[in-house]
Amino acid sequence: MFDRPIDLAAARILISNDDGIDAPGLRILETVARSLCSDVWVVAPEREQSGAGHSLTLRRPLRIRKVGERRYAVDGTPTDCVLLAIKFIMKDARPTLTLSGINAGGNLGEDITYSGTVAAAMESTLLGVPAVALSQHYDRNTGPKWETGETYAVEVLRRLTAAPWPLIPWSTSISRMSYPPQ
């Protein structure tokens, strides 16, 4: 499933994050993705969910709000967003790649375990869709230099997708699961 390079020109890209639907990093990543292909979808949390890790919303119904063409806000976690995008919103034509970010903060070391940005990419992979999480480290006094992502993300993604991705044998059986459970 992941054993071939990804043809970005023919790709269907899902974008999510943990900083929310209106985050500057998400807007930059959406612009980057649209420069790589024309089929870009955004499904992101309604508001910031930093530190949510790989949590799911289980005790209340989730709301999905369409905010534009192929753009949706979910009142849940980054994991909820990716799960709903792949299993519900995009179920008729699954994404070929998920991009999560660009996160405002580095997601380094043990921070990865708390990161909703990384969790969104992990959830995508568990559902059989290759994913990349992008984060922007910054100095707290000056804030993120978003031009770094604008400058380098396209080339980084081209290089990553040009190489074969590791095959994950169990992802096929997981991707066949239905949601919500029948």
Commentary on this structure:
The chain is an alpha/beta fold and about 180 residues long. The chain is about 30% helix and about 20% strand. The chain is built from five helices and six strands, in the order βαβββαβαβαα. It has a six-stranded mixed beta sheet with strand order 3-4-2-1-5-6, with helices on both faces. Helix 1 (about 25-35) links the parallel strand 1 and strand 2. Helix 1 (about 25-35) crosses helix 4 and helix 2 packs parallel to helix 3 (about 115-125). The radius of gyration is 15 Å and the shape is globular. The two termini are about 25 Å apart. Mean pLDDT is about 85; it is low at about 170-180.
Q: Briefly, what is this?
A:
The protein is α/β, with parallel strands linked by helices. The chain has helices at residues 24-36, 78-89, 116-126, 147-162, 171-175; strands at residues 12-16, 39-45, 64-68, 71-74, 97-104, 131-136.
